[in-house]
Amino acid sequence: MKDIPTPPEAEDAPKNRLDAWIIKVSHALSLLFILTVFISFYEVLMRYVFDAPTTWVHETASFVGGSLFVIGGIYAFATDKHVRVVLIYDAVSAQTRRVLNMVHHIVGLAFSLMMAWASYIMTTTAWYTPWGEFRLETSGSYFNPPYPALLKALIFVIFCILSLQFILHIIHEIKALRSGKDV
């Protein structure tokens, strides 16, 4: 089979300013993985060397790791590293790829909007009592941080950003389809 070159835009270059911002912020936030290593090391040291386990490390490391995992979704989309069926995608022309991208982006936009709505509902129940009083949902542990409420809010924000990303990518593909060349 003949090797079809990928369009220049398919490389790591961001397609818009939002993608560029996401990439920049994500690179900075990725340093928080080092924080989870350090606090996990601290927990091991305290537990096994000083016999004084902490009450906060496991939940904090889980929260930081989970948050970064959620942010990784918009990073993958911004860098065009999301999952796709390359067996089909790589075997078609650049113009057909654009059409496949449009289908992907439209379905993705519908999905991200529905998930944003669902996460909004989930976030409001995590931030407010049924009678409307502000109260963050907590983990229920001895440490009892508001990490569940914060993570749910982050998921909502990320799905809103992802929806905006899909809209911007749809605009990009429409411009490219109209011009018949790379934008």
From TrEMBL:
Example of a GO cellular component annotation carried by this entry: plasma membrane
Ranges of residues in domain Tripartite ATP-independent periplasmic transporters DctQ component: 37-168
Topology with respect to the bilayer: Multi-pass membrane protein
Principal cellular location given in the protein's record: membrane
Transmembrane annotation, as ranges: 21-41, 61-78, 106-129, 149-171
Molecular function terms from GO: transmembrane transporter activity
Subcellular location, record wording: Cell inner membrane
InterPro entries on file: DctQ, TRAP_DctQ
UniProt keyword list: Cell inner membrane, Cell membrane, Membrane, Transmembrane, Transmembrane helix, Transport
Family under the similarity heading: Belongs to the TRAP transporter small permease family.
Function: Part of the tripartite ATP-independent periplasmic (TRAP) transport system.
Alphabetized PANTHER family for the sequence: 2,3-DIKETO-L-GULONATE TRAP TRANSPORTER SMALL PERMEASE PROTEIN YIAM, SLL1102 PROTEIN
SUBUNIT field: The complex comprises the extracytoplasmic solute receptor protein and the two transmembrane proteins.
Name of the featured protein: TRAP transporter small permease protein
